[in-house]
Amino acid sequence: MSADRLDRERILNVVLPLGIFLAALAAWEILVAVKNIPPYILPAPSRIAATLVSDWGTLSGSLWVTLSITFSALFAAVAGGVALAVLFAQWKWVERSFFPFAVILQVTPVVSIAPLLLIYLDGHTAVLVCAFVVAFFPILSNTALGLASADHNLVDLLDLYRASRWQQLLFLRLPSALPYFLGGLRIGGGLSLIGAIVAEIAAGSAGQGAGLAFRIVESGYRLNIPRMFAALVLISVAGILIFLTFTLLSHLMLSRWHDSARRRES
Amino acid sequence: MNAEARAARDVVRLRNIGKTFSNGTIALAGLDLNVREGEFLSLLGPSGCGKSTVLRIIAGLAQPSTGVINWTTANHERPELGFVFQESTLMPWTSVFNNVWLPLRVAGLSKAQAASRIEQALALVGLSGFAKSYPRELSGGMKMRVSIARALVLRPTLLLMDEPFAALDEITRFKLNNDLLRLKAELGTTVVFVTHSVYESVYLSTRIAVFAARPGRIIEQIHVDAPYPRNDEFRHTPQYAESCRAASHALTSAMDSEDRL
User: For the segment A62-101, what is each residue's pLDDT rounded down to a tens digit?
Assistant: First the structure.
């Protein structure tokens, strides 16, 4: 009985969404075939798949560029965000003095900074900085919130045992902040990809360092719509993989203790 | 030093302690209290009477607005203390073993150096088999035991407990009451125990300080002379009933004085 129910649940959870997704693709395919829509207006999924294969040489290079920018920016954002959050937690005046800068960076849309950065920096660096700027804030603010959320009784207990500030940070505040940090990382991971794409579109940089965004712009000029879609597919897949990776990481690190990663007993 | 002389020695003396919070609330006024070595002292009173504040002041977690605290240690400094909160206050991200390690870790002991003392403390509270468990996997009573093991791992001179069993069911509370008396007998630790339960205070204590609120002060002290070891039988003795009546009466007059204010 219960095994049956488990099976049914699995079917509903996995097979149903997958089926609906495939059905949507099939409907798209059929629509294009029946209405005889030309590929320069709307390519069929099969055509997009074929383009992915035939243009893989160009697209994979661009995918690599985009991913390397995304992860370099994210890495810098994690290092900077966590370091600054720790400084915030240790010294209140640092937080009060520097938080406004972080907010200004956050509320100013990255598209509007990109042209300025392109004047100051070379294309590649400017794109990297843009991706960093958007990923930095969620990691900083989440980590800072986490560091401040340590159980007050545990803080008292460490005071009672005359723990130093750094012991308090190491034994209590950093582990308390972990779930918040991982939440920030998930948001930051997605945002740094968006930042990299948006900045590259603004930069329009060509040549060897051309990422997926440039391929989209380029394909638009050439009315190579199937390749445009193929690049879009790669961006989506990259975004989904980034999200899944961090969700898995978060699950692995928290599954033994944090409510967010635990199944509720029914 | 003979037993009586030891029993008469104070661990800490609080003189004329007052505490006014920043919002103007007077939590404590003119409080005098001596904690004697080896005694089990309960601070009994209605909520908001400042009994937890006394505990926090003794622990050095809060500063008194007036008055002085005298430690009778050789250098007049605060000796090793243990503190148990109302919640078990464990670190959810790590094992029972590592939770009990915390005080020793702060003192600079590595896991290997601390291991035997951690195991001893866990054995004391009957949790030897649970070193690798995470707090989430334990019941409320077991979590409280871990919390007590953590408080005892440094073998403190004075154990401070702030309504530690208030959130537990009665069966668990009775069991932990007995365990606490057994631990106290084994280790000879002095205990200051905050509670709002008349029955719990009488069952556990050698002395009960009854508090009244606004401002927090001690209005009566009750000595419970029944010898240790005490067990559930003690709950059915006339002496227990008599002490409960006395404590209850003192508590009622504490509440009355509050109503008049």
Answer: 999 999 999 999 999 999 999 999 999 988 899 899 889 8
Chains A and B: how many Cβ contacts under 8 Å? 53
Give the separation between CA A106 and CA A77, rounded to whole angstroms: 13
How close, in Å, is residue A172 to chain B by CA atoms?
8
If one looks up domain A44-261 in CATH, what number appears? 1.10.3720.10
Mean pLDDT of the region B206-228: 91
Chain B residue whose CA is closest to A164 = B106
Looking at the structure, do residues B165 and B202 belong to the same domain, yes or no? yes
Both tokens of B114, joined, read: 């601390």
Strand ranges for chain B from DSSP E: 10-20, 26-36, 40-44, 66-71, 81-84, 158-162, 190-195, 207-212, 217-223
Return the SS3 of B216.
strand
CB atoms A172 and B107 under 8 Å: no
Is some CB atom of chain A closer than 8 A to the CB atom of B164? no
Structure tokens at A72: 């370099």
The pLDDT assigned to A208 comes to 52
Whether B40 maps to a domain, the answer reads yes
Q: How far is A179 from chain B (nearest CA, A)?
A: 10
Q: Which residue of A has its CA nearest to B151?
A: A157
Task: Please list every residue in chain B whose beta carbon sits closer than 8 Å to the beta carbon of residue A153.
Answer: 85, 87, 89
Residue whose entry in the numeric block shows the structure tokens 């960093």: A132
Q: Does some domain include residue B13?
A: yes
Using CB atoms within 10 A of its CB, is residue A51 exposed (0-12), middle (13-18) or buried (19+)? buried
b/e string for B86-101 if b means 16 or more Cβ within 10 A? bbbbbbbbbbbbbbbb
- Residue spans per domain, chain A: 1-36, 44-261
The counts of H helices and E strands in chain B are 8, 9
**Domain that includes residue B132, residue range:** 93-156
Interface of B with A in 117-136 (CB under 8 A): 134-136
Residues 159-218 (A) with a CB less than 8 A from some CB of B? 159-163, 167, 171-172, 175-176, 178
Is B62 within 8 Å of chain A by CB? no
- Give the ipTM of the model, two decimals please: 0.90
